Amino acid sequence: MEIVEGVGIGVAVLLGAFLFLFVRRALVTRSGGIIRLSVRTSTMLDGRGWSPGFGRFVGDELRWYRMFSFAVRPKRVLSREGLAVERRRLPEGQERMSMPADWIILRCTSRHAPVEIAMARSTVTGFLSWLEAAPPGAVSPRMASQDWPAA
């Protein structure tokens, strides 16, 4: 009887973990603005180190959450300020096996360190538009210094 109880507890723990993962994802994705995105977390081996997840645009930040994680907070936050795309390329070698064929890899530079992100070809255009745009309600520093006539 002890074996059956142990198996039952193990099954209950696994179901609880899966339920938590789904609730976590629902909480993060509830307000939209989600894209599928992989981030290269390790560059020790060529073509390896990619971690799947999803990104969420919040103001001038792109918050990246790992797909299979219990963390409620983002694993990585990329700020639009200081972020630039250095180059783009197609997956090479073993990368072709770890991501869909229509994905593009972008090597970005930021204030902290270079980062490689991969996303669908159709998502790259939206990402680049977000990167070049100012956040809603923001005033360009060049425009803020000018005196505007009263309306």
From TrEMBL:
Membrane-spanning ranges: 6-23
Source domain of life: Bacteria
Keyword entries, A-Z: Membrane, Transmembrane, Transmembrane helix
Name of the protein: DUF2550 domain-containing protein
Species whose genome carries this gene: Verrucosispora sioxanthis
